[in-house]
Amino acid sequence: MSRETSTTDRKLSHASDRPGPDATWEEWDAWLTPRQIVSELDGHIIGQANAKKAVAIALRNRWRRQRVDADLRNEITPSNLILIGPTGVGKTEIARRLSRLAGAPFVKVEASKFTEVGYVGRDVESMIRDLVDNAINMVRAEREDEMQEVAEQRAEERLLDLLFPADDQAAKSAGTTGLGGDEGQAPSVFVAGPSGVARAGDEESGSLDERRERTREKLRGLLKDGKLEDREVEIEVSQTPNIDGMMIPMGGDPSGGMDFNFTEMLQDMLPKKTKRRQVTVADARRILIQDELDKLVDMDAVVNEALDRTEDLGMVFLDEIDKVAGERGGAGPDVSREGVQRDLLPIVEGSTVNTKYGLVRTDHILFIAAGAFHVAKPSDLIPELQGRFPIRVELESLGEKEFVRILKEPRSALLTQYRALVETEGGSLSFDDEGVREIARIAAELNERMENIGARRLQTVMTTLLEDVLYELPELEQKDIVIDGDYVRANLNEIVHDEDLRKYIL
Question: Which long-range contacts (CB under 8 A, 24 or more apart) does 67-76 make?
Fold first, then answer.
């Protein structure tokens, strides 16, 4: 498996000392030390030092495993983790950022969506099939990036063929102006003008082939200058059969919950139909580039690479694991909880899952589980499943101090996002320190008096605070807006202290 391609998503990082775009696999991995991983996570997530340290070690161990002798490599199991903490403290964000750093296939699933075999709902193996689909998309995107320039060149040649066919018959079939003339007369060369209306070219000396080549180059120049974007051409496009309409009479579920992605398999079996469409040059270029990419990308190689990457680097974030924990031996609506745990056990433990692309072993997929565990406790999970998550990390609740940092410090902080939104309309938005502290105080107070939703409360507070500003912004004459402590109190204190309003707005 090519390790260089698996580092593509790492280049989303913005650390000042990160390797350059042409860095080798060894250089990237030398950079991704546990300390550097924590530093990267610090740029997006405030606090939670213990959790960051644990996941950094788990990620580095996956690289270390690749360097071990093959015989021992297969014996090294991943260090699965359980992240324990209330909602909104960064559990999901830690896992998501970690997968982007690793350039690894990643899927987030909710344990509460699964049901025991025999009940209506998703089976646990579907998360591995989703993981493989994500790996396929990741590898294919990398291959398409490599082939993009070639595809654009080929699409350009096909567009020129449509705009300037090789003979009169092609011109008639393509519905475009080409070489024409009355019988017995020399053909005339037509050139598409910037307006999209064909005009006769000047009489030029030279052979017909030379004149045609000159005309084609003129068209090429117009294409590159974007002067033919609105001109219409006729192309053939393939149509996908409507599977959803076929599945409903057969009792199928068009929402996509069937095992083995049965609807996609049926789509592949049905004959493809083509249809001629009249589209603009801009749309035709997009369609033709994608068609050329489909031809250039070797899907067999993509599938093989994706399956390898899934087995060696795949990561599954299993959220709401506490929702399937509870007292064992119960009855009623929660009867399938323990069954879901027992179905999860072989997947986490290591088994073979059948996907439409082939068999996938889960022995070395990293599983990161998370849950609030307000009611249930990690010890309420069945002992066998507990043993498959040897590392437990408790995340800290967030308070006013952490909220101030969350508003200001991350690279895509909430204040930065709102400033960017206001700037799109020629305005400016600034927050003084007192205003930021007041926003954080109100968010922390609401979490104490209502449901504690962690840092997500900041989004609701900011949305309510800036509602009038964003509504009136296009008509404002003075668009330089300053949010200070007085502004925050004037706009939010009444809502915060009105129980009925607070319940529905915040």
Answer: 74/363, 76/364
